[in-house]
Amino acid sequence: MTSDLELLAATNSVGKNHNKDLMSGASSSLRAAFSHCVQQVRNYDYHHYLCLLELPPELRKTAFALRAFNVETSKAMDIASDPRIGLMRLVWWKEAIDKIYVRKQIEHPVAQALASVLSENKISKGWLKRSVEARINDANREISDIPEKIEDLEKYAEDTVSTLLYTTLQAGGIKSTAADHAASHIGKASGLLLLLKSLPYHASRNRHFSYIPAEVAANHGLLFKEGGRSEIHLDSREGLCDAVFEMASVANVHLLKARELSGAVPIEARPVLLESVPAQVLLDSLNRVQFDVFDPRLARGVLGVSPLWYHVKLKWYSWRGKY
Predict the structure, then answer these.
(1) Mean pLDDT throughout 244-272?
(2) How far apart are the first and last CA of the chain?
(3) How far apart are CA 198 and CA 203, in angstroms?
(4) 3-state SS record for the chain
(5) Are 7 and 307 in contact (CB under 8 A)?
(6) Are 202 and 116 in contact (CB under 8 A)?
(7) High-pLDDT (> 70) share of the chain, %
(8) Taking every pair of C-alpha atoms in the chain, what is the biggest distance, in angstroms?
(9) CB-based contacts of 121: which residues, under 8 Å, 6+ apart?
(10) What pLDDT was estimated at residue 17?
(11) C-alpha distances in Å from residue 23, one per residue of 31, 34, 52, 64, 71
């Protein structure tokens, strides 16, 4: 029986081979830029790193550059010692996109890789700007500024996650309304579920659950008015689990809708939509812990399951041409 460690070693070897494929024919500086992108995705977004390895070789380079761009913007606020510095970093990336599209050189490995793939593919600038602007708007929110409805978080998920799928489909030259609609649903599901998984982290930083909508919090006794403003309290673990269940149920509906479209989605689009697999894995993991986001089992392995099981599930969907 192959151990998880042996599987991961094999996966790392495959990743290195794909890394070499990405660099073929490129200058040494560009090879270093793409290598940096691959490592960033592998280090900070491992479950999606494995998804990208299932893409056709001609699409991987673009997908890794786009996903590394997402890593840079998604962690900008988390790694900054001061929120103002994180916000400045996001604004820098917004301006960097404008510079890339007018072919200005930027001394940053992810920006260099992004510039390279954008010069080779027709990718809408609007999608990239939309994702950064959504993160800037989120970073500008006050701690007490709680989203009113779950639709607000669905929009944030589409702006930051679905846009990645849209741009990857564009890079692959895939024009399909069904694929776009499926990508929208998968992005919303994935974004919502990842926000749920991150709730303990955000709570440890500011003691507020700013990613639980006020409407949902009120439904489960978590919303309190203090000093003229609303706050979410965690006194009731049962109430929190119920709120997480309500939000996860919305994500589940999006996954079901995405799969209902599968018959109309072109075969060449399905590898891009494999990102529904990690979303489903996380949803199943939440279900196993009764939607308790503080359960330590969620932090184990890959999204709460063993690396071997995750890898096998992903390969199974890929081999069957499903998502």
Answers:
(1) 98
(2) 27
(3) 9
(4) CCCHHHHHHHHHHHHHHHHHHHHCCCCHHHHHHHHHHHHHHHHHCHHHHHHHCCCCHHHHHHHHHHHHHHHHHHCHHHHCCCHHHHHHHHHHHHHHHHHHHCCCCCCCHHHHHHHHHHHHCCCCHHHHHHHHHHHHHHHCCCCCCCCCCHHHHHHHHHHHHHHHHHHHHHHCCCCCHHHHHHHHHHHHHHHHHHHHHCHHHHHHHHCCCCCCCHHHHHHCCCEEEECCEEEECCCCHHHHHHHHHHHHHHHHHHHHHHHHCHHHCCHHHCCHHHHHHHHHHHHHHHHHCCCCCCCHHHHCCECCECHHHHHHHHHHHHHHCCC
(5) yes
(6) no
(7) 90
(8) 62
(9) 62, 170, 171
(10) 53
(11) 5, 7, 16, 12, 20
Total length of the chain: 323
- Of 279, 288, 281, 282, nearest to 257 by C-alpha is 279
Whether the CA torsion 247, 253, 258, 262 is positive or negative: it is: positive
Q: Which of these, 107, 102, 119, 99, lies nearest to 29 by C-alpha position?
A: 107
Q: Which residue has the tokens 């560009």?
A: 30
Span 163-170, average pLDDT: 98
Neighbours of 42 (CB within 10 A): 21
Is 148 a residue whose pLDDT tops 80?
A: yes
Does 259 have pLDDT greater than 80? yes
Decide if pLDDT at 12 tops 70: no
- Residues 175-190, mean pLDDT to the nearest whole number: 98
Return the structure tokens found at 23. 């660099």
Tokens of 273: 């939509």
